[in-house]
């Protein structure tokens, strides 16, 4: 097996995840796309750990833990947005406008 | 010596008390206060037992008596608690210490050998016990207890004041809606303070430091329904954050300087032996001074302390007078070699620590003159007295600083509780100018205790404050004829004497307003109940007699045994490897007379002004004389520090700076963005007009659409839509990555 | 044992085949996650991707991480997403209104990123082969593999070398726990 086949797969998943983050309107779907990105990163970490030791696997575990926390808080925020606006469409949130 | 190795039980008890009050407090018949009093009572008994043990331990000279084996076992420092405190090293240092002490001051050495009758001088070692909290690689973080004279002293002070404040509070905040919550936080505060005091590693000191800060925040804002109280709590918290930056940086510097060790012993030993470079110690000391400035209310970061009086009065007595605010003093005293070597205290005549302290002592005392609120007067008085302690540490008079900390805790707590008793009688007003007066007759117990404590604070002869203040003054080494001081700090002596004069004068002023003249409030004031007056009487007694703890040698009439002669030096001051070889200024009769005269002059001036109506020319001076009016205005505005912080600095950031940024954003950035956008659209249109008409349609459509899309995106850059920002972010990331890959990789 | 398998050529071919099949499924599923018009379907397609990632970990001989992936992602995170969909009353059927107006921009960004990344990867790593040498380096790890497999080696390094990151992660989880409760509770 080549190292690159995993890395390229991860690059593809990452790009698809970025597409999802940019394009999806529904907050929950955006969070799913972020999960795609994080998993792509994890594949990278594991693939490289075959070269440089178990540190990569340890950090993949940390990423999984942090991702779980992120989903929890992210969904809580989405829920709060839904409660306040009766909609989870992210593109209606334009209060950042200068 | 069971108490030395199990001293951790004392803070643990208070944590238990906190949890029990939190869980069961509301269901108890006295709403949880009995739990707190019960546990703090046990803690006090244990602290006193520890102190008595320590005292008999140090006075017996355990290393040479029959207890030698036990002493060796007890004072053995496990390698995990300290990397460098090995047995040989400690012994070698103690030999050297003896030599140094004898060489340094002939008089002192002669005195000590005379008293001890040729008995070898014994250094009682600290008892260190610790647990490994966790280890990674070479770094080990430990948590444990360090028992020596200094921590034992603070244990006793904290538990005594805390017990009395608990008792006082049962009456003072009785019926409050968050009564249980209040006692829970008192317990938590006591636990944190004891944890801090017993700290064996700097990490533990930081944790304790922050915990007491949190408790202070919660208790200042106890009545958070009123806006000023929450503001005061926030101000205290945020001002302390400024100092915490210094604390963290300083501790980190020390951690690396001491070869990656958090142990207090390691840091002190290495600093003391000159194995840490001077400049590193200087940087660490300056950072830690910032922390002291915020926590101990030293000048320019003192502004939170007077505002913190918004909390309940017993809290002010416990936290903002007797214990928490001296955490800074304790920190300096604990890591004293860092300051002693870093600031080159010995043989010098000025340094940062001493200047900060002296300025605070004088300017804080001046501010107390214009306050109408009796608690504010006491708050500025605390600021000023903390300045005395910091100066004392700054001039090398370590023992004097701890002695003043000890006496100040009693009489200042008494004054605060007295103020609480007054306001209890006067419909919870602290305004002594408008709502008090003539209370001497109706509240005799409060009056007498307040009077005694005032005398102690002003430095009236036999009371405790006189002894400790005098020791600080002679510690400056500036007064002619003083022997054995570490340096000659002339400026400090002058400023401290002025501050002592002001202290006596403003305290007399509070007595005039509160206890003499006509009653200016409404209703019928009455003496408070026994739960308020008994703590007052105890504290006043302690404040009056605490001075015997460290009477100067030359004044002792009866010939006492060697160990008794200089109690603080003997029992409180650490000896040996982890403490610098400081010398002790001798008692100077002339200076003592001068300081008493200065104190009496302050009292006399106020007396003549208020009681006898002398200095007619001075009354109403500020309404006639422009200069005096300006001076008064400066004082009333607290040297404009609050104005500087809120209006100038915050205002600048919020106002002009924010506006400027906004303008820049609106005009320059938007201009560029819009310009680029228009340019792109223009290009698109130009492309459409010129190329589309002439070149092949398919290619052109692509380019035109691309340019149009680009233009559209750029034009709407500031749409406020998050996902557009995300898109731009990823484009930028991709482009930058590309640049890196092509150019560098 | 797995080390021997990977080194022998007889395992390389089935492993490559398995990878190819998984990769195709994963990419297809990932595309469906970001394009489907049904929110619930997106969550289900996400299951396929996450499961595929877990199988990839197995191919890379990271059994412990693979198990964690299955438990945490397939078990917990996907259920969380389904709850999120339910609680926000997302349209359960097909909905045309799930994408915003920058779909074209998204494609451009995705392709651009993919191009840059692939270029960098191919240029840097070319045809490097996976060796798995690092897994068994050092006497300690070898001993651990002999006794309790690689999992012990991982736990050793989590609680030794990476203890502080681990503690920080635990604090982060606590903060996230409190944050999620504070945000989501009705008051």
Structure overview:
The complex is a heterotrimer of chains A (98), B (745) and C (187). Helices cover 80% and strands 0% of the residues of chain A. Chain A starts with a helix and ends in a 13-residue tail after the last helix. Chain A has helices spanning 3-23, 27-52, 55-85. The mean pLDDT of chain A is 87. The longest helix of chain A has 31 residues, at 55-85. In chain A, helix 1 (3-23) packs antiparallel against helix 2 (27-52) and helix 2 runs antiparallel to helix 3 (55-85). With 745 residues, chain B is mainly α. Among the domains of chain B are: 350-551 and 568-573 and 586-628, no CATH class; 641-743. Chain B has helices at 2-5, 9-24, 33-60, 68-75, 87-104, 106-116, 149-172, 179-197, 202-220, 227-257, 264-272, 278-295, 304-307, 313-322, 327-334, 336-342, 352-367, 374-394, 398-425, 432-435, 439-442, 444-458, 464-475, 490-515, 530-545, 562-565, 567-572, 589-610, 621-624, 626-636, 641-694, 697-715, 722-743, and strands at 127-136, 139-147. In chain B, strand 1 and strand 2 (139-147) form a beta hairpin. In chain B, helix 2 packs antiparallel against helix 8 (179-197) and helix 7 packs antiparallel against helix 14 (313-322). With 187 residues, chain C is mainly alpha-helical. Chain C has a domain at 2-108: NADH-ubiquinone/plastoquinone oxidoreductase chain 6, subunit NuoJ (Four Helix Bundle (Hemerythrin (Met), subunit A), Up-down Bundle), CATH 1.20.120.1200. Chain C contains eight helices and no strands. The chains are: A mainly alpha (98), B mainly alpha (745), C mainly alpha (187). Chains B and C meet through strand 1 and helix 33 of B and helix 5 and helix 8 of C.
Brief overview:
The complex is a heterotrimer of chains A (98), B (745) and C (187). Helices cover 80% and strands 0% of the residues of chain A.
Please outline the helices and strands.
The complex is a heterotrimer of chains A (98), B (745) and C (187).
Chain A: H1 3-23, H2 27-52, H3 55-85
Helix pairs in contact in A: 1-2, 2-3
Chain B: H1 2-5, H2 9-24, H3 33-60, H4 68-75, H5 87-104, H6 106-116, E1 127-136, E2 139-147, H7 149-172, H8 179-197, H9 202-220, H10 227-257, H11 264-272, H12 278-295, H13 304-307, H14 313-322, H15 327-334, H16 336-342, H17 352-367, H18 374-394, H19 398-425, H20 432-435, H21 439-442, H22 444-458, H23 464-475, H24 490-515, H25 530-545, H26 562-565, H27 567-572, H28 589-610, H29 621-624, H30 626-636, H31 641-694, H32 697-715, H33 722-743
Antiparallel strand pairs in B: 1-2
Chain C: H1 2-7, H2 9-35, H3 39-59, H4 63-87, H5 103-125, H6 139-148, H7 150-159, H8 163-184
Helix pairs in contact in C: 2-3, 3-4, 6-7
């Amino acid at each position: 097996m080549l190292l690159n086949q995993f890395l390229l797969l991860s690059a593809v998943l990452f790009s698809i995840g970025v597409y999802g983050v940019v394009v999806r309107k529904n907050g929950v779907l955006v969070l799913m796309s972020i999960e795609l990105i994080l998993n792509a990163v994890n594949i990278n970490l594991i693939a490289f750990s075959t070269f440089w030791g178990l540190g990569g696997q340890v950090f993949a575990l940390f990423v999984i833990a942090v991702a779980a926390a992120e989903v929890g808080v992210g969904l809580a925020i989405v829920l709060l947005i839904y409660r306040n606006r009766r909609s989870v469409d992210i593109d209606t949130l334009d209060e950042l406008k200068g | 010596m069971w108490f030395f190795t199990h001293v951790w039980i004392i803070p643990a008890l208070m944590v238990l008390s906190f949890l029990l009050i939190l869980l069961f407090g509301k269901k108890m018949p006295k709403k949880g206060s009995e739990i707190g009093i019960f546990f703090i009572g046990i803690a006090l008994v244990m602290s006193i037992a520890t102190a008595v043990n320590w005292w008999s331990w140090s006075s017996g000279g355990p290393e040479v008596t029959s207890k030698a084996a036990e002493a060796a076992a007890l004072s053995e420092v496990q390698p995990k608690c300290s990397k460098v405190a090995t047995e040989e090293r400690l012994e070698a240092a103690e030999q050297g210490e003896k030599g140094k002490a004898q060489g340094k001051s002939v008089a002192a050495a002669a005195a000590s050998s005379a008293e001890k009758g040729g008995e070898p001088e014994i250094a009682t070692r600290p008892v260190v016990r610790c647990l490994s909290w966790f280890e990674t690689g070479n770094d080990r973080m430990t948590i444990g207890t360090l028992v020596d004279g200094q921590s034992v002293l603070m244990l006793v002070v904290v538990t005594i004041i805390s017990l009395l404040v608990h008792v006082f509070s049962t009456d003072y905040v009785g019926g409050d809606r968050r009564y249980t919550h209040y006692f829970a936080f008192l317990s938590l505060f006591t636990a944190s303070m004891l944890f801090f005091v017993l700290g064996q590693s700097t990490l533990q000191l930081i944790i304790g430091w922050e915990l007491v800060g949190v408790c202070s925040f919660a208790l200042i804002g106890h009545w958070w329904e009123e806006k000023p109280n929450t503001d005061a709590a926030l101000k205290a918290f945020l001002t302390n954050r400024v100092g915490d930056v210094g604390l963290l940086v300083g501790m980190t510097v020390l951690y690396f300087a001491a070869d990656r060790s958090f142990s207090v012993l390691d840091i002190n030993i290495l600093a003391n032996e000159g194995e840490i470079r001077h400049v590193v110690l200087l940087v660490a000391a300056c950072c830690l001074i910032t922390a002291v400035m915020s926590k101990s209310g030293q000048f320019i970061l003192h502004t939170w302390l007077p505002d913190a009086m918004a909390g309940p009065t017993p809290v002010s007595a416990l936290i903002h007078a007797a214990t928490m605010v001296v955490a800074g003093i304790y920190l300096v005293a604990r890591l004293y070699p860092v300051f002693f070597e870093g600031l080159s205290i010995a043989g010098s005549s000025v340094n940062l620590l001493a200047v900060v302290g002296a300025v605070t002592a004088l300017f804080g005392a001046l501010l107390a003159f214009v306050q109408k609120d009796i608690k504010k007067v006491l708050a500025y008085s605390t600021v000023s007295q903390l300045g005395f302690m910091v100066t004392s540490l700054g001039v090398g008079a370590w023992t004097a600083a701890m002695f003043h900390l000890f006496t100040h805790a009693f009489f200042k707590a008494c004054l605060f509780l007295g103020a609480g008793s007054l306001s209890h009688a006067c419909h919870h007003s602290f305004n002594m100018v408008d709502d008090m007066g003539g209370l001497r007759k109706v509240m005799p117990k409060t009056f007498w205790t307040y009077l005694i404590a005032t005398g102690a604070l002003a430095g009236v002869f036999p009371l405790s404050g006189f002894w400790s203040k005098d020791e600080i003054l002679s510690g400056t080494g500036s007064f002619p004829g003083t022997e054995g001081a570490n340096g000659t700090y002339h400026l400090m002596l002058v400023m401290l004497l002025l501050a002592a004069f002001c202290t006596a004068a403003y305290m007399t002023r509070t007595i005039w307003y509160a206890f003499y003249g006509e009653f200016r409030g409404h209703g019928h004031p009455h003496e408070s109940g026994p739960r308020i007056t008994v703590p007052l009487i105890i504290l006043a007694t302690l404040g009056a007699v605490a001075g015997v703890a460290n009477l100067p040698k030359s004044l002792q009439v009866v010939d006492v045994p060697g160990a008794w002669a200089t109690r603080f030096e003997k029992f409180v001051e650490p000896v040996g490897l982890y403490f610098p070889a400081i010398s002790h200024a001798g008692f100077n009769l002339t200076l003592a007379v001068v300081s008493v005269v200065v104190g009496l002059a302050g009292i006399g001036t106020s007396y003549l002004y208020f009681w006898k109506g002398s200095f007619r020319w001075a009354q109403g001076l500020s309404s006639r004389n422009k200069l005096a009016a300006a001076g008064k205005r400066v004082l009333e505005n607290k040297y404009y520090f609050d104005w500087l912080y809120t209006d100038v600095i915050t205002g600048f950031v919020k106002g002009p700076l924010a506006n400027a940024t906004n303008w820049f954003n609106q005009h320059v950035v938007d201009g560029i963005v819009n310009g680029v956008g228009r340019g792109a659209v223009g290009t698109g249109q130009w492309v459409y007009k010129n190329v589309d008409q002439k070149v092949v349609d398919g290619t052109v459509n692509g380019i035109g659409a691309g340019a149009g899309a680009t233009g559209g995106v750029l034009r709407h850059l500031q749409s406020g839509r998050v996902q557009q920002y995300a898109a731009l972010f990823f484009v930028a990331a991709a482009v930058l990555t590309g640049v890196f890959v092509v150019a560098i990789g | 044992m797995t080390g021997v398998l990977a080194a022998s050529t007889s395992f390389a071919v089935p492993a490559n085949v398995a990878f190819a099949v998984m990769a195709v499924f994963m990419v297809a599923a990932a595309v469906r996650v970001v394009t489907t018009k049904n929110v619930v379907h997106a969550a289900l397609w996400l299951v396929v991707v996450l499961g595929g990632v877990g199988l990839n970990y197995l191919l890379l001989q990271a059994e412990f991480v693979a198990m964690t992936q299955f438990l945490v992602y397939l078990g917990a995170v996907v259920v969380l997403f389904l709850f999120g969909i339910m609680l926000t009353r997302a349209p359960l059927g097909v909905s045309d209104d799930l994408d915003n107006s920058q779909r074209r921009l998204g494609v451009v960004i995705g392709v651009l990123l993919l191009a840059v990344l692939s270029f960098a990867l191919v240029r840097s790593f070319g045809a490097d082969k996976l060796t798995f040498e690092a897994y068994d380096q050092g006497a300690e790890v070898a001993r651990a593999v002999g006794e309790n497999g690689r999992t012990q080696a991982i736990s050793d390094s989590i609680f030794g070398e990476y203890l502080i990151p681990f503690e920080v992660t635990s604090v982060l989880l606590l903060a996230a726990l409190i944050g999620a409760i504070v945000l989501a509770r009705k008051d």
